[in-house]
Amino acid sequence: MMGTLAAVLAKKKIRTFQDRYMATVTGDIEAVNDVLKIVRINVHYRLKLPADKRADAEDAFNNYITLCPAAQSVVEAIEINHELEMADED
Question: Where do the H-state alpha helices sit in 12-88?
Answer without folding.
Answer: 54-63, 69-74
